[in-house]
Amino acid sequence: MAKNIYARTIYFLTEKNQQNDPVIDQVQKQLCVEIPYIEPNDLMYAMQLHKHKILMIDHQYYQTLNNQIRDLPLSNKMFETILFNVEKRLTTEEILCFGNIKALFYRHESIESIARGCGEVINSQNWLPRKVTAQLIHYYRHVILSQTSPATVDLTSREIQILRCLKTGASNLQIADDLFISEFTVKSHLYQIFKKLSVKNRVQAIAWANQHMLS
């Protein structure tokens, strides 16, 4: 493939200063393009410089990365993301944590398949499994239907804080740590939030918050 085709750049988001990930190395060779490595701190430090870049993430290390990137707007469309090394099917809520996800590769997939998908993403295409696409379609259909939901809901200040934490993709434990409350208290607040918003789960609550809350 001609290198000049690839005007857009993929960056490998890594939690440590490594420069020899075998999957990344092989994808670079297959595509004949460079995939620079970038750490969360660097991404946060130069947010505007890295705006609109494509981030490639190894799902095996995402939980470690998550503590560093939860303050980054990955759930926002600012970043396109490519997820690889996924062991099993993800929930819709987990998929949404990666924002504008363009490609997802399971652990069993070949380097040739990953490289081909990455090439399509660089050329502004999507490369998602059918089941993932179906999950996202179902989610966004709910978002459209939720536009008829009342924008004025009697939420307490604490419930609003928790909704904002949900939008960042924080877990119950992370919310509890951030707000200095117990995990049980978080669950109690979530129950009241779901009831007031007439939603059934976190994904639907996040959809409501994205539509009706400015920040």
From TrEMBL:
It holds the Pfam family GerE. One of its GO terms (biological process) is regulation of DNA-templated transcription. It comes from the Bacteria. One of its GO terms (molecular function) is DNA binding. Residues 148-213 form the HTH luxR-type domain. PROSITE patterns: HTH_LUXR_2 (PS50043). The keyword Cell wall biogenesis/degradation does not apply. Keywords: DNA-binding, Transcription, Transcription regulation. This is CsgBAC operon transcriptional regulatory protein. It comes from Vibrio aquimaris. The lineage of its organism: Bacteria, Pseudomonadati, Pseudomonadota, Gammaproteobacteria, Vibrionales.
